[in-house]
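Hi F.,

I've been meaning to write this up properly since the lab meeting, where we talked about keeping a consistent format for the predictions we share between groups. The idea is simple: the sequence comes first, exactly as it goes in, then the structure tokens exactly as they come out, then a line or two of notes. No screenshots and no reformatting. I'm using this chain as the first example so we have something concrete to point to.
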Amino acid sequence: MLDRVANADFCLRIRDLNAWYGESHILQGMSFDVAEGEVVTLLGRNGAGKTTTVRAIMGIVGRRTGSVSINGTETITSMPEVVARTGIGYCPEDRGIFASLTVEENMLLPPVVRPGGMAVEEIYRYFPNLKERRKSAGNLLSGGEQQMLAIGRILRTGAKILLLDEPTEGLAPVIVQQIAAVLRMLKERGFTILLVEQNFHFASTVADRHYLVEHGRVVGSYRNDEINQHQDELKERLGV
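Output, unedited:
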């Protein structure tokens, strides 16, 4: 059984999160919040701990300590399949689609973990490219189409909190713009999104707030409307 957190003001509340891969201590006290309906980014260089953070939230690291509260439910000791049933979905950097299955088969495969998941035809309205390729195998899709499919698969499950790891990496600018448009539409529908990004130019077009991550902990927090005031600092710390 999972214990309810007494005060659940946030969809996602992370406190003093530590995580290890073997003997390597990657996360060293991550703490941040994401409110319902927000889009929040974790910004940082490669190796800062961003991907490990979302994996630790899902419970798929070797060891973790601290607190991970999802919709008011403490999940730090929960198995990944239990975490998923709190209404959170994870889109990994490698996208996690099945290469030998068609687009539609990929879409129908994930289990529904919460009520309210989108129908396949509804997802096709968000991603018309996928409808055109619905009979194509996953390994025949472009990188952008694979990313759309990976996001679409999560929308089928009923998850309302989305963890997206580098969704624009390696994609053409026109596809990045399309992904941004979809994220804004999902926000309008009440989805909560935690976005791992290195590209703060993209992040600033979709996010409400940003956390800067270095050495496995948050070292800065910025509202999107003040991001321009910190351009020089972010360029230096992100190496862009």
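Notes:
The first helix runs from residue 50 to 58.
The domain at 12-238 is CATH 3.40.50.300 (Rossmann fold).

If this format works for you, I'll send the rest the same way.

G.
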